[in-house]
Every structure is written in C-alpha cells, then in structure tokens.
Amino acid sequence: MINIQPYESPEYFVLILGLLLPIIIGLFYGKRLVNYETLFSLVFLVLTFGGDKWQQGVALIGYVLFELLVIFSYSKYRSKQNQTSVFVVAVLLAIAPLVVVKLTPLFSTNSSIIGFLGISYLTFKTVQMVMEMRDGAIKEFEPVLFVRFLLFFPTISSGPIDRFRRFKKDYQTAPDREKYLCMIDKAVKYLFLGFLYKFILGYFFGKILLPIVSHAALAHKMAFFHTGLSWPLVEYMYTYSMYLFFDFAGYSLFAIAISYLMGIESPMNFNQPFKSHNVKDFWNRWHMSLSFWFRDYVFMRFTFFLMKHKLIKNKLRISQVAYLANFLIMGFWHGVTWYYVLYGAFHAVAIIINDYWLRFKKTHNVPHNRWTEGLAIFTTFNVVCFSFLIFSGFLNTLWFK
Amino acid sequence: MNVNEIVLDILNGITETDFSKDMDEDIFTSGLVDSMATVELLLELQEKFGIDVPISEFNRDDWNTANKIIQRVESLQ
Lengths: 401, 77
Fold this sequence. Notes:
The complex is a heterodimer of chains A (401) and B (77).
Chain A: H1 10-28, H2 34-49, H3 54-78, H4 84-107, H5 119-135, H6 143-150, H7 164-171, H8 177-219, H9 223-226, H10 231-261, H11 279-283, H12 288-308, H13 315-334, H14 338-363, H15 370-392, H16 394-400
Chain B: H1 3-15, H2 35-49, H3 66-76
Helix pairs in contact in B: 1-2, 1-3
C-alpha cells in the first residue's frame, strides 16, 4: 500500500487536482457531487493514514467514534438540562485523547498508539462543538455533517481550524457561478503563492540555510561564558523564523486553495504577521484560526467567568490572569516540553507588557509618526523572532544535549 | 435614558471614548475594543437590558459599530 503525505510532493498535487476535476465541474454548474466527494475524501484519507501509517488510520477511526459518542451524549443531555459540571466533564472527555497523546512522551520513548497526524486540530473542532452546544448556538446533533466537518481532508493535518456553523453554511449550498469563479481565481493564486512560500522560500531557509547556521551555532556552544550566545545563534533565530513562517503559511495556502476549489471558504491563517505593530496585533495576524479559537473559546470565556462571578475585582488583573491561562494552555498544546511552555509564558508576558504600554499611550501624549511606527514594527519583529527561537527547541539542543 | 444613550454610556465607560460623534466607527479595528472589552460589553448589556448574548453568537461583524450595537439590542429586547 502506498502512503502520501498531504501537500508534500508534486505527485500529491497532480493527483488531488486531477481527482478534484469532477467536483470543480459540478460546482461550476452549481451542483455539489456529494457521493463523489465522499469517495474522493475517503481515497485521500486512506492515502494519508494507510500504508505503513495504518496504525494511525485505526487510531483516527477510534478517535472519531469516541468523539461522536461524546458529542452525541452531550447534545442529548443539553436538550434537557444545562449543568456546568456536565459541560466541564464533556469538555474534559473531548480533550482526553489529546491529553493522553501529549503526555505519553513524558513516560515512554514511543509515541502513543492512539495518536495520529492532526489529532490536535480535530480536538479544536470537537471542543468547539461542545462549547457552542453549551451556548445553545448548535442545537441538534448531525452525525454525518459532524464527521464531514471533522474529516474535511484539505485541512485535516494542520488546519486552518474552521467553525462548524460556518462550514455547514458553505457545505449545504453550492456557491453561485460568479462567486465560485472568484474562488477558483483565489485558489490558483494561493496555490502558486504556496509553492513560492513552501517549496522555494521555506525550502531555502529550512533545508539549505538552517543546517548551516545550526552547525555554526552548535560550534559556538561554549561562547559567552558557556551560554552558547553567539552571532550564529542570532542568525539561527532569524533563519528559523523565516522558515517557520514560509513553511506554515505555504501549507495553509495549499489547504485553503483546495478548500476553495471544493466550494468551502476555509478561514485564512496569516495576514502579513511581520508587519505587526505590537504583540497584540501579531496575534491577530499569525496562525489566526488558532489564535481566534483561543480568543473565543479560552480567553473570552475565562474572562467572562471571572467577571461574572466577580472572582477578581481589578479589570487589568483579570485580563492578565486570562492572558497567562490562554497562552500557557497554548504552550502545553504545542507539546509538554519546557520550550513550548516557555514560549507560551513568554507571549503572555509580552502581551501583558504590551497592554501596559497601550494604556500608557492612551493617557499620555506619545509622538506618532512613521519613524515610531517603524520602531514598533522592528521591536515586535524581534520579540516575535526571539519567541520562535524558544519555540524551535534549538536552545534545548544547545544547552542540554 | 433610551437605548441609544445607555449603549453610548456603556461604550464610554469601557473605552473612555465618546462614540456619539461617529456612530459608525469600527470599534474593533480602531483597537478601542479588544476581547476583554467585548466581554465587559456583553456583561453590561446583560445587566442593563437583560439580554443574553452567548459568546458563540457574538459575531464581530454584527457588533462592530455603536449603531449596530444599538440595532442588535433593540432587536433582542
């Protein structure tokens, strides 16, 4: 059995665009070929999770069945009652498989047998369902639609993270011809931009430059009183940051382009993040589908809870506690290692300092011109790149290996 | 006080900005209202008008100006 990883090779693009043709022609004539689309999705799921990755395939099936049961039970319960404790249990159950997968590396050298590529992204989608059911925004349990939403394969491995009600609206109709042509137009643009980002720039920074600067930085392990702080390390920081952006933004563009061709407007993931004026602005531009998920399902709910129950009086303190919780959870989500958690904590502290500054700016007359804007962008860029150096895990290699 | 005044009052209390001059100014893109301020807004609306807007139903595009907030409040009352 063959196994093809999404968006990795030219063969994948040839295959996917070829098999997409009937869907594209159907949508062009205003028809969604549901049966063909199901078959098509199955083929790609088997290609991604089959072959030597068959264990992941089994894990995926088990995961979907388990989450179906959680959502089904909670929706049954929610149609009659609305206890907070049951809601909390439902959320904990929904994230339980992910927690097990993330904690396994702490206790074992093998990865968990219930893990598979994209489990964290599917968990975001499931938790979102539970939360919106709690709010009464999603009322009925639609198993077929839920599975389609969960397993929508263009975004299955690494997002962008869509919202169920948005997906449902797209999925239940076909876009009119004018709109669909516009979507094809964008899809073609995103595909080529994606090629440039992932296979040219991402490849250059990640596969050519990164090994060189990494080697140089490791050779300076003893520099600056044994801390390893050296110019090559600074070069590593910027190179890795560029690689991370182009690789991930490129991948996201592919996922969005394929979604568009299927008549689904998956949300954008990046909006020129290196132009951000401050850290807060950065999180509105970087990995947006993730940061908005955290904003809507963690930060806002947590602040709402704290304020409603008047657990903390001071508003500034509330936002600071919520930022810490928000970014620490995000850190742990990336993986239970000191550098991911520190990455989260670093961003929490950065955004808290940022908030103090914004408050100061409101009450004081701070000059504003293109030079100060340039300084703001420059500062933000460096803060962000430094956070990516933490995130890269390279310091772990440099200091502890 | 009518809905108009109460909403402007709430917004003024949260952002320390008077929106009565430009009721169509986008409160999110101007950076005056962030997620934290949004939650404050929702709680105040709940308290003053008794309307319940769950976070899931809060679509920023429907609530991004003083005028739109007033409209929403009036339709939900």
